Amino acid sequence: LGYLHDDHGVLHVGALTRQRAAERSPVVAARCPLLRDALRLVGHAQIRSRGTIGGSLAHADPAAELTAIFAALDGEITARSARGTRVIAAPDLFVSYLTTSLDPRELLVEVRIPALPPDAGWSWMEIARRHGDFALAGVGVVLAGRRGVIAEARIGLVGVGPTPVRAARAERMLNGQAPSEALWAEAADAVRAAVTPDGDIHASAEYRKHVSGVLAQRALREAYSRARMAA
């Protein structure tokens, strides 16, 4: 279960693939650089050398970077048990804190994540107290379009709720629009409205909500700078 390959625009990742292996994979760099950039901020190199892609998703920590990538890109997993095999899509996997829809008798055996469109721009941004700590808030953005108009926007967040958050309203707001600073600011407000963070000893709920919008606006700007929308 330690494999990783691209099959017709979908990354197939064995559940036991080490995070470090995915981070350094030329396939991931070429087909899903958003995943590569997020993996670089998972703990430290020693942790990524032991932690697995499947393990992170099955653990379902809502501050884990991989959960937001999986949600934003509409990933899916294959789960297997003595009763058979089933596919679970991203919206159906995460239930609450550290809780998934996997049955106790099931094993997660494969993760599938669609590759980014060839001309898409991407950005992963997060804030943590120290390098290697879990993110207080993090956001992944993908933007694709043509002729100066956004055709597809994807936004996933971590650290701002009991599960990873897909900012669907902000995505709809962006689609069909010409990029601008005003649009980024409007989308950032929609991101803040989409999250319901809890406060803890690390950061208040108000801080997490505020910074999620700040990070989203910065990530949208960076993703657009990497996108090729002129054609």
Automatic annotation (TrEMBL):
- Give the keywords, sorted: FAD, Flavoprotein, Oxidoreductase
Q: Which InterPro entries match?
A: CO_DH_flav_C (IPR005107), CO_DH_flav_C_dom_sf (IPR036683), Diverse_Substr_Oxidored (IPR051312), FAD-bd_PCMH (IPR016166), FAD-bd_PCMH-like_sf (IPR036318), FAD-bd_PCMH_sub2 (IPR016169), Mopterin_DH_FAD-bd (IPR002346)
Where are its TM segments located?
none
GO MF terms listed in the record are: FAD binding; oxidoreductase activity
Claim: Flavoprotein is one of the keywords in the record: yes
Ranges for domain FAD-binding PCMH-type come to: 1-118
Coiled-coil segments, which residues?
none
Q: Does the keyword Oxidoreductase apply?
A: yes
Its name, as the record gives it, is: Xanthine dehydrogenase family protein subunit M
Organism of origin: Candidatus Segetimicrobium genomatis
The organism that produces this protein has a lineage beginning with: Bacteria, Bacillati, Candidatus Sysuimicrobiota, Candidatus Sysuimicrobiia, Candidatus Sysuimicrobiales
